[in-house]
């Protein structure tokens, strides 16, 4: 007998377009007795123009889900779409192009090039792709992130929070279909972390971007519109309009299940 959790497509917005979608997404690492099922038939949607957080216990499959949705990792079974494009049938070259055009990334470790200035780092992906930046949009992003007076600085001359803001600007600069943030506040003190979360929030509210963020922090998840909860490779719950307390309570239930 199927459970309600198996029938529900998590993340589905009541109306409006979808930025990304997974159907029956399964990812196994290894084979035989040592095989690990990191994702087990996940059906999920990421609504466009929303801020979605992905939470769950360590090893539940959060990073794997993000990597598969972003086309960074191949899938074992199932399908993934970014916008209208089914990415699971693309070859490596097509996938690289689609990722470059449609997806922005923010990593825990900033991943800025140390020899380039902040301004050069922001436009680097477009420079590599040979694309001319939409200067008006890039200026809006730079001003929204408060980076105007830091553009000539190199990463080593910036604080961690400022470096992560540059990474956010880089992710936003090409106006991608969606932005994936993997623990974006993990290396920041709480004030800088708050700043970065506020900017991700503004990217959604004011610049109408779509953000998907993996986090361990209930306070960070509370900045999202929706939290998807993963456990043992399956999405088991979702929480719209989360508060830090409600997210923490939900996470404690996972701990109790593990203990029993
Ligand atoms: N390259 C890999 N090879 C083998 N197993 C892997 C690999 N990557 C992930 N796994 C396994 O897949 C499962 C899901 O891992 P994943 O990193 O997606 O979890 P996570 O929820 O992001 O964990 P964490 O919160 O600790 O970062 C884990 O059991 C992990 O050990």
From TrEMBL:
Q: What is this protein called?
A: ABC transporter ATP-binding protein
Enumerate the UniProt keywords alphabetically.
Answer: ATP-binding, Nucleotide-binding, Transport
GO cellular component terms attached to this protein's record: membrane protein complex; plasma membrane
Q: Which CDD domains match?
A: ABC_MJ0796_LolCDE_FtsE (cd03255)
| Any one GO molecular-function label of the UniProt entry | ATP hydrolysis activity
Q: Domain of life here?
A: Bacteria
One short Pfam name that applies is ABC_tran
Please name the Gene3D superfamilies in this protein's record: P-loop containing nucleotide triphosphate hydrolases
Q: Where is the ABC transporter domain?
A: 20-257
PROSITE patterns for the chain: ABC_TRANSPORTER_2
InterPro entries, alphabetized: AAA+_ATPase (IPR003593), ABC_transporter-like_ATP-bd (IPR003439), ABC_transpr_LolD-like (IPR015854), MacB-like_ATP-bd (IPR017911), P-loop_NTPase (IPR027417)
């Amino acid at each position: 007998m199927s459970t309600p959790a198996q029938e529900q497509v998590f993340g589905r917005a009541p109306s409006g377009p979808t930025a990304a979608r997974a159907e029956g997404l399964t990812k196994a690492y290894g084979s035989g007795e040592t095989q690990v099922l990191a994702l087990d038939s996940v059906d999920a949607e990421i609504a466009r123009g929303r801020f979605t957080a992905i939470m769950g216990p360590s090893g539940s499959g959060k990073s794997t889900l993000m990597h598969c949705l972003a086309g960074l990792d191949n899938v074992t079974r199932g399908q993934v779409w970014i916008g209208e494009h089914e990415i699971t049938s693309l070859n490596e070259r097509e996938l690289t192009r689609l990722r470059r055009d449609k997806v922005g990334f923010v990593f825990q470790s900033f991943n800025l090039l140390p020899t380039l200035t902040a301004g050069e780092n922001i436009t680097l992906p477009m420079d590599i792709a040979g694309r001319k930046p939409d200067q008006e949009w890039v200026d809006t992003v730079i001003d929204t992130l408060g980076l105007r007076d830091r553009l000539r600085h190199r990463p080593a001359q910036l604080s961690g929070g400022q470096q992560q803001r540059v990474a956010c600007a880089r992710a936003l600069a090409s106006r991608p279909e969606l932005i994936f943030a993997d623990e974006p506040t993990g290396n920041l003190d709480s004030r800088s972390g708050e700043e970065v979360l506020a900017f991700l929030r503004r990217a959604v509210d004011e610049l109408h971007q779509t953000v998907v963020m993996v986090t361990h922090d209930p306070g960070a998840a509370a900045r999202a519109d929706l939290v998807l909860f993963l456990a043992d490779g399956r999405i088991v719950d979702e929480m719209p309009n989360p508060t830090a307390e409600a997210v923490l309570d939900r996470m404690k239930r996972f701990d109790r299940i593990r203990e029993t």
